């Protein structure tokens, strides 16, 4: 992450920098973010209304304080309603592939795709122990089975209670180490 952060921050385009950071912070799909308009943001609730999603239905994406801070810092272009405006009057940023390739090269992460940033959101949430149902809701997956791909990345929740159980059994038995099962030779 430090190498990626440095590479993002070196990019000269403020809108590209904002987009990449927002992909990491929100888990939005590429087009969802690029098409976002200022009027889609509910600053008070910390939400972004997504009128045009992969499912074909409008959805709400929740925004962290970090994402909101970035969105508030993005320079507005008069007459352009888009959060990430392009140089074309009234249009949104469309193609960030070339700057993304440059960022990946600087970060030495050339095999990472934009969509992998969405996966990073789910992976980091899983690693932090966030319930998969909440990740499903946050990433707005149509089906929980898509979210379940992150389950393999989760900390083994059953391991800790089993370790504690094993420690307590051994302590109760007056043992400090493994039980000798081979006639006391171990």
Give an overview in words.
This protein is mainly α and 186 residues long. The chain has 2 domains: 2-126, Intergrase catalytic core (hpI Integrase, Chain A, Orthogonal Bundle), CATH 1.10.443; 156-186, no CATH class. It has helices spanning 2-10, 14-26, 30-34, 65-73, 97-107, 114-127, 132-139, 144-147, 159-172; strands at residues 41-42, 47-50, 59-62. The protein has a 3-stranded antiparallel β-sheet, with no helix packed on it. A hairpin with a 4-residue loop joins β1 and β2 (47-50). α1 crosses α5 (97-107) and α2 (14-26) runs parallel beside α6 (114-127). The longest helix has 14 residues, at 114-127. The two termini are 45 Å apart. The model has no long low-confidence stretch (mean pLDDT 84).
Which structural class matches the secondary elements?
Answer: mainly alpha
Low-confidence stretches: none
- How many individual helices? 9
In CATH terms, what is the architecture of the largest domain?
Orthogonal Bundle
Overall 3D shape: elongated
Ends apart, CA distance between termini: 45 Å
- Spatial order of the strands in the main sheet? 1-2-3
Strand % is 5-15%
Helix content: 40-55%
Tally the structural domains.
2
| Biggest pleated sheet | 3 strands, antiparallel
Averaged pLDDT: 84
Name of the top-level CATH class of the largest domain: Mainly Alpha
The CATH topology of the largest domain is what?
Answer: hpI Integrase, Chain A
The Cα radius of gyration reads 23 Å
């Amino acid at each position: 992450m430090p190498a990626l952060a440095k590479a993002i921050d070196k990019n000269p385009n403020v809108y590209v920098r904002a987009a990449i950071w927002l992909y990491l912070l929100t888990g939005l799909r590429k087009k969802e973010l690029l098409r976002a308009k200022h009027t889609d943001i509910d600053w008070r609730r910390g939400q972004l209304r997504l009128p045009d999603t992969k499912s074909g239905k409008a959805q709400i994406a929740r925004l962290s304080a970090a994402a909101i801070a970035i969105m508030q810092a993005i320079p507005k272009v008069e007459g352009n309603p888009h959060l990430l405006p392009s140089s074309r009057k009234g249009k949104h940023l469309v193609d960030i592939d070339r700057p993304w390739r440059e960022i990946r090269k600087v970060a030495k992460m050339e095999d990472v795709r934009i969509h992998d940033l969405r996966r990073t959101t789910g992976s980091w949430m899983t690693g932090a122990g966030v319930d998969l149902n909440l990740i499903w809701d946050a990433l707005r997956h149509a089906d929980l089975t898509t979210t379940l791909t992150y389950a393999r990345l989760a900390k083994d929740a059953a391991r800790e209670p089993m370790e504690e159980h094993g420690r307590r059994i051994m302590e109760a038995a007056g043992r400090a180490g493994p039980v000798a099962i081979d006639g006391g030779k171990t």
